[in-house]
Design a protein that fits this description.
Elements lengths: L1 H159 L1
């Protein structure tokens, strides 16, 4: 009997031990189920976050594509701008040359105007001199005619004598 009691006590102790173990395992199962629920919630949250990030990646990729296109357009515009700048420089150089030629031409024109003025003064002076000479000629012609007439009178009076 003692053995039976001992066995019963052992069985009770063992049953208590198994019950404690059962309680522990039950607690562990609850914890694991709670962890599982937390993990499932975390997975759902991360899945949602992943979808959001994927959408954001798509948006960013489209923006990158747009930025690349804008960069290409900017490069093209820069190239056009460089071409226009070169053309502008050429036109400015041509303008400077034209200005230089214009200044030279203007200077030559001023010189020509001065020469024309000098020649006009000279022409005026020569016309005045011509007029004076014509007047002198007319006076001398008149004196010549008078002297000729007087000489003819003298010649005629000498012939009459």
């Amino acid at each position: 009997m003692e053995k039976i009691r001992e066995k019963l006590t052992n069985l009770k102790l063992e049953a208590e031990s198994w019950q404690d173990k059962h309680e522990e395992l039950k607690e562990q199962v609850k914890q694991l189920e709670q962890e599982k629920t937390d993990n499932e919630n975390l997975i759902k949250s991360l899945t949602t976050k992943n979808q959001t990030l994927e959408q954001e990646v798509e948006t960013l990729e489209s923006q990158v594509s747009e930025h690349k296109q804008q960069a290409e357009e900017s490069t093209n515009l820069k190239s056009h701008n460089d071409n226009f700048t070169k053309k502008n420089q050429q036109l400015e150089e041509e303008l400077e040359e034209s200005d230089s030629k214009l200044k030279e031409t203007s200077e030559k024109l001023r010189e020509a105007d001065l020469k024309v003025e000098q020649l006009e003064r000279k022409v005026t002076s020569l016309e005045q001199e011509r007029d004076d000479l014509e007047t002198k000629y007319d006076d001398l012609q008149t004196k010549y005619d008078a002297a000729k007439a007087e000489l003819e009178e003298i010649s005629a009076s000498l012939e009459n004598l």
